[in-house]
Amino acid sequence: MTVKSVKIIKNKVFRNKKGNLVKYISKKNKFFIKFGEIYFNEIKKGNKKGWNLHKKNNCLIICVYGKVEFILIDKRKREKKITLSSNTGKILKIPPKVWFAFKSIKKISILANLIERPHQDSEVIKKNKIKNYLIK
User: Fold this and answer.
1) Which of 3, 20, 79, 82 counts the highest number of beta carbons within 10 A?
2) How far apart are CA 8 and CA 61, in angstroms?
């Protein structure tokens, strides 16, 4: 059983001895719908953030620094755990109506999240507890 419609998108990492280059989003990507805004989220080890559910927005999330573990739960209460790391360049696509929370596995991690519409409090539902998971 898996959370429906959540996808990991392989992304090209251009390896270079001076430092790698990762292309995050292009309007040519099939998974890209439209631009609303991008925000960066810093997470310190030992802390969890979430539970969030977007009513309309797809989230395209990439770990730009560190390593982050996500827990995702859909309306059928099915859950999935996914880890993103800055050295893979993978993008996590979270569709609307999927609950998610995350924590840093490294001392500090940074995520970039592209959503299709500018943030509105009414578009996002936030809770402290989903299923058996509590976020303090």
Assistant:
1) 3
2) 10
